[in-house]
């Protein structure tokens, strides 16, 4: 089934909660907020293992690029060891000149001659390390960006294939937070954090090996600080991970509240509920703010423990080096190299440890992206034969939402090919649910919906797109040329000049061609966000033009003219009749003028069909429809 309008949206109070364990060392009780009160998850979140597996899978698509990034990072880390080694040699040369303890002391001429290559090595090593570091960072960022692009494409592809019922249940706030905020967090991590973390990890490994190569006892002195680092990490990680997950969920809930308030601004004002909606947005924003402050407080304690570890390590290396120089085991230059190597560890270790802050945040965002990308696809139905004709049949259909009570109770309905049937009834009668079932957007809990003798749910996607199109009152105008907005409904193979002629004919059919010609560039005018703003009536005419271009056998209109004001109602109803001419049509009627013009009228109440017949016959029967008609017409 192809939607000719856009995506429905809702604003459910659905959030996900998670509560880490507390201990005397914790930064205090977590700030509570509306996220945890709802107790219902938004879109799924992947486990850490599955999230990183998704990244590895994307990296494996370009193995040569990944290998090049790792190789350049290793070369840059190795070149970073040249400077401490060269400075140690330089100290030994100077020590020999001044008669200080240095192995193999020689004359001043030899010392002076030795300065030039040592200085050249120092300068050349520094330059080479800088160039290699830049190339490595660029290679790692490029490989990561490609992996993120692949994951983001998978997320969008999966979302576009989600059932409409899932999107309506979860709302758009959490989804926008994932493809917006979460992508931004992961993008920053890939561009800035990942190259630094990889380079730092390689530098730590190679530097530790070089430090031990100077003398194993110096290496032992350097590792004395490790227990302090390990203790700090063991304290920090189990507390920060859950906090970051809560923070990302709180940000999604905040986006949901903001989006709902902005999209429903007119309704909010009409109900005078501004203060309640503002209070909801404020509460969710405060929740996100309080979590950010809690995370910062926790990280400050972690940073203090790191400073303590560095101080312990420096004292241990200097003390061990002093003892070895006095014993004649090492030269001053070798101890200088060892101390410089250890001091050089501070930067990479600091990056590794402080980057856990960014890595935890990026990991939480990555899990949210992977959670959508890895959502299981609906099982492919057994392919049904193509519909034999344009008839519609609803047999004993019962439907319920999320295990709730039935909203349709044994509905039976048949539409002959080319017949126009209007469905009327009070709000909540089940009209839109029936329309969604006929269009294939929902699957009945009990019963069958047949198009031309084939179950609509068993049709393959292409067959369904050719067979039935739904147009609702919620229309989306896509950003871009108006021609492209309509052309997205075109059947495969229609392109170029033929496509433009078909779009023009569709616009003519629904009465939109006249106002389209008045636009600055006609059908080539950019509309939607950043372009010409269209009125609700004009947007609905584009949706009806898409219906004409798609040319299905069956059309379903779910209050498709409801957005029009009284001045535009007649024009939109004429457009709807033109768009559905010759098609089997089910119309959820917002105005009873549509019912009067239909071949038959179906009256629903409480999820059941209570009357069926032609307009005049139902009015004469003095039943529920007659009551509706008198209220509508004032007669």
Strand order in space, largest sheet = 1-7-10-11-4-12-13
**CATH-level-2 architecture of the largest domain:** 3-Layer(aba) Sandwich
Number of discrete domains:
3
Q: Proportion of β residues?
A: 5-15%
Look up the CATH topology of the largest domain.
Rossmann fold
Give the assembly state of these chains: single chain
TL;DR?
The chain is an alpha/beta fold. The protein has helices at residues 34-38, 48-59, 63-79, 82-97, 108-160, 164-170, 173-214, 216-223, 226-263, 265-270, 274-326, 332-373, 431-439, 461-467, 482-487, 496-509, 513-517, 536-550, 566-580, 592-597, 615-621, 624-633, and strands spanning 2-3, 392-400, 406-415, 420-425, 446-451, 454-455, 468-472, 480-481, 526-527, 554-558, 584-588, 600-605, 608-613.
Any overview of this molecule?
- This protein is an alpha/beta fold and 635 residues long.
- The chain folds into three domains: 42-214 and 352-377, ABC transporter transmembrane region fold (Up-down Bundle), CATH 1.20.1560; 216-329; 392-633, Rossmann fold (3-Layer(aba) Sandwich), CATH 3.40.50.300.
- Helices cover 62% and strands 10% of the residues.
- The protein has 22 helices and 13 strands.
- It has helices at residues 34-38, 48-59, 63-79, 82-97, 108-160, 164-170, 173-214, 216-223, 226-263, 265-270, 274-326, 332-373, 431-439, 461-467, 482-487, 496-509, 513-517, 536-550, 566-580, 592-597, 615-621, 624-633; strands spanning 2-3, 392-400, 406-415, 420-425, 446-451, 454-455, 468-472, 480-481, 526-527, 554-558, 584-588, 600-605, 608-613.
- A seven-stranded mixed sheet has the order 1-7-10-11-4-12-13, with helices on both faces.
- A hairpin with a 2-residue loop joins strand 12 (600-605) and strand 13.
- Helix 4 (82-97) runs antiparallel to helix 12 (332-373), helix 9 (226-263) runs parallel beside helix 12 (332-373) and helix 11 runs antiparallel to helix 12 (332-373).
- Residues 5-41 and 100-107 have low confidence and may be disordered.
